[in-house]
Amino acid sequence: MDDGARFRLGWEEWIALPELGLPALKVKVDTGAKTSALHAYDIEPFGSSAAPKVRFMMHPIPSRPDLAIACSAPVTDRREVTSSNGETELRYVIETPMQVGDRSWPVELTLTDRGTMQYRMLLGRQAFPEDVVVVPGESFCQPPLSYDDYHSAKVREVAPDRALRIAVLSREMESYSTRRIVEVGQARGHTVEVIDTQRCYMTLDALSPEVHYDGKRLPHYDAVIPRIGASITPYGTALIRQFETIGTLCVNPAAGITASRDKLHAHQVLARAKIGMPKTAFAASPKDTDNLIGLVGRAPLIVKLLDPAQGKGVVLAETKKAAESVIDAFRGLHANFLVQDFVREAAGEDIRCLVMDGRVVAAIRRTAPNGEFRSTPGPGGKITAAKLTRAERETATRAARAFGLGLAGVDLVRSADGPKVLEVNATPGLQSLERGAKGDLCSHLFEMIEKRVRPVPVRRPRKSGARNRT
User: Where do the ATP-grasp domain residues begin and end (predicted)?
Assistant: First the structure.
């Protein structure tokens, strides 16, 4: 074939590696080298032995060490490679499509730290199909690309399916919710690992904070999904804060979980955000019983412990005398509690809304069994899909946002003057929601994580000499 008709490459070219989220790389073409190499640091294997993967970071622009792109790919091999200076290194090998001009073909790349090199990628002779000719005396035979692509939405578009490493913090390895999260995440190509919260411990250090687990330092996770039980809230949220310090995306932040678990604090958060809820009062002095009841209204009233679980510690006082007796009993136990208006028109029903990433993805109506005022799922209770009004959707999303939760179960009741929030749950169970809504809800969770972890456009550095504007 005549060289003029063949696909020509110069000794340096612009290429793109779309599946790695790299829209523009300036590479050196070296026919003297057999293999190709891509700059990578913080290289870390993950996944199963049957389908191993590797994750790594890379600086695509030599002059921009502040711009780091996280990449991941299946591992095709691991082999020893001898560099030009005679040093031999055991490297991970990946294969990924390479875009050059209007052509694309798969290329095999070894991963190594090229941080001191002018070119972040070296193309060896094995990377070229038969119809490609390298012209050593020329450069940039193919159309140029631009590093500006890292400052635009294009950087989002080129890496939609990057495999992620995700941790689920849970002590209930076999619970329905944990199993579903793992199952759906793995089906989407991610590595999802369940970590027992209480088996973790932390190193607090200004330069290198770490999380350890059973004697080993935990690897870097792209995201953490907290499933923290109420009994270990203090330690669980401390662990989440450690992940936040490291820079890991936490679906629900520690502050939001802590606030939602403290019922008094939770009501204060809702009140500050001007979100409708039943009128609520709190006090600690026994002599204030009458005034406490008067602040809320007349009987019937709900008297609720500040940390009830599954409806326990929630009492309906149908008369003022009954309310006084319950309040005095709780005070005798030195228990903290709330007194709350009973929304009679709810008629033993509430609605649980599952909010993910600022929108309601499912809603179920929970109906209490006959003779019971609490709609918490249990024997004799009924769960059906719920159709929400616009006001109810807005209330649920505002409540989740008030706590900063990416995933929340918001319980509300329908009252004569609009929806009222009863509780915001940072660790909602998924079984009743999936059964009632008849849908796959975990996919929404991973769509949110993928969107948040995916590379984002970065600001261009300020040019030297530019004036600050006020």
Answer: 267-450
Angle formed by the axes of helices 442-453 and 176-187, nearest 10°: 60
Q: Which numeric CATH code is attached to 3-157?
A: 2.40.70.10
Write the pLDDT tens digit of every residue in 323-355. Answer: 888 887 877 777 777 888 888 777 678 999 999
The Cα 269–Cα 7 span in angstroms is 64
Q: Which pLDDT score is estimated for 375?
A: 52
Yes or no: domain 165-250 corresponds to CATH 3.20.20.70? no
Give pLDDT, residue 374.
58
Closest to 250 measured CA to CA, from 42, 457, 452: 452
Calpha distance 311→23 (Å, rounded): 53
Edge-to-edge strand order for the sheet containing 418-425? Answer: 382-385, 359-367, 349-356, 407-415, 418-425
> From CA 470, how far away is CA 464, in angstroms rounded?
17
Pairing of strands 132-134, 22-29: unpaired
Residues 6+ apart with CB under 8 A from 253: 240, 244, 404, 405
What band does 373 get if pLDDT is binned at 50, 70 and 90? low
Range list for CATH 3.30.470.20 in the chain: 345-449
**Amino acid identity at 438:** K
pLDDT at 88 (0 to 100): 87
Can you tell me which residue has the tokens 């590797």? Answer: 54
Residues of the chain with CATH 3.30.1490.20: 279-342
- Positive or negative, the CA dihedral 202, 184, 160, 116 is positive
89, 80 Cβ separation under 8 angstroms: yes
CATH number of 345-449: 3.30.470.20
The CATH number of domain 279-342 is 3.30.1490.20: yes
Overall pTM > 0.85: no
For the segment 363-389, the average pLDDT, to the nearest whole number, is 74
- Give start-end residues of each CATH 3.40.50.20 domain in the chain: 165-250
Name which of 212, 253, 290, 201 is nearest 400 in CA terms. Answer: 253
CB atoms within 10 A of CB 52: 14
Would you call 132 exposed, middle or buried from its count of C-beta atoms within 10 A (0-12, 13-18, 19+)?
middle
**Above 70 in pLDDT, residue 464?**
no
Domain span(s) for CATH 2.40.70.10 in the chain? 3-157
